[in-house]
Amino acid sequence: MKPARLKEGDLIALITPASTPSNEERIEKGKQYLIDKGFRVETTPNCCAVRGNLAGSDDERIWDIHWAFNNSEVKAIMALRGGYGAGRLLPGIDYSVIRNNPKIFSGFSDITTLQMAYLAKTGLVSFAGPMVAVDFGGTVSDYTAKGFFDIVSKGWKGEVPLPDGLSLEGNGKGSAKGVIVGGNLAVFCGMMGSSYLPDPEGKIFFFEDVTEPPYRIDRFLNNLRLAEYFEKAAGFIFGQFTEGETDDSPTLTQEEVFSDYLSMINKPVITNFPFGHVDDLFTIPFGIEVEINSNNPSVVYLESGVI
Is 307 contained in some domain? Predict the structure, then answer.
């Protein structure tokens, strides 16, 4: 189920389903960025609510999701930021509201929980893409902005272009096609065993993460292995894994952890994809078919994410 493409003059709702936004200047700058692009912008009613680290109570954040999808004027819903807390909302969401009102829904990091739940429960294609108070509220790169608007406004498809200085790497195990799913590795693994994840059979999995020490990445990859994702998947794409701080305790390096687990995957694998908690990220429409080639490393979007 694909949403309609975003057009000039459309209304974008800004939402915070996880942590509360903490920098009003970045919110205003992100809003102005979208206005300057020719869009109308409205924050959801509970957007800046505060309950501890959360952007309001669970009920308030669920209410905002329903409000944004039910509002016929809203054509796209964009997260101001990620953080933590979106997973708490899954049992309380009325998925018929989303199914009956398909719209562009964009964000990443903790927003992974909502994107996978929407896909599993309704089939909605959503977008791992820039967040308003994080990316558009800072100094957004031309690469990030162009990729996002080409995908949600023009319906772009084709071979993913790379930012200057970045090259993909592959494991030399051929090509694979499949529907792309995934998101933040830690968040995704926290959902395993629930009904809010798509069936892994034949999927292309994408993962990224930030500030996770090597032993935690080891744990998450082992979760995937024990749940037989290595066998069920058609292939894997790994994005940027920004390293966290480590103490002086003996540890495997991040490179050693990935080397161990990637050697267990007898499927095509692409690494170093331009997405994660980095400046240059290329928007991913979760739920479309893609093709990866691990011999001559490339990622191709075989269809548009919008209609």
Answer: no
The CA-based angle 154-104-284, given to 5 degrees, is 70
Question: Which three-class secondary structure state does DSSP give residue 189?
Answer: helix
23 beta partners:
none
Residue 274 lies in a domain: yes
Regarding whether 231 and 109 lie in a shared domain, the answer is: no
pTM metric for this prediction: 0.97
Is the model's pLDDT at 295 over the cut of 80?
yes
Identity of the residue numbered 217: I
CATH number at 55 reads 3.40.50.10740
- pLDDT tens digits for range 147-188: 999 999 999 999 999 999 999 999 999 999 999 999 999 999
Dihedrals φ, ψ of 212, to 5°? -95, 125
Strand, coil or helix: 144: helix
What domain range includes position 115? Answer: 11-140
User: Over 90: is that where the pLDDT of 23 sits?
Assistant: no
Catalytic residues, which ones?
A: 109, 208, 277
**261 and 182 assigned to the same domain:** yes
Q: How many angstroms separate the CA atoms of 73 and 12, rounded? A: 9
Pair (136, 163) in one structural domain: no
In this prediction, residue 275 carries a pLDDT of: 98
